[in-house]
Amino acid sequence: MANAFCHMELGTTDPSKAKTFYTSLFNWQLDDVDMGPMGTYTLIKPGEGPGGGMMKQPVPGAPSSWLPYVQVDDLKAATAKAKSLGAQVMKDVTEVMGEGSFSVILDPTGAALGLWQPKAK
Question: Which of 41, 68, 92, 94 counts the most CB atoms within 10 A of its CB?
Answer without folding.
Answer: 41
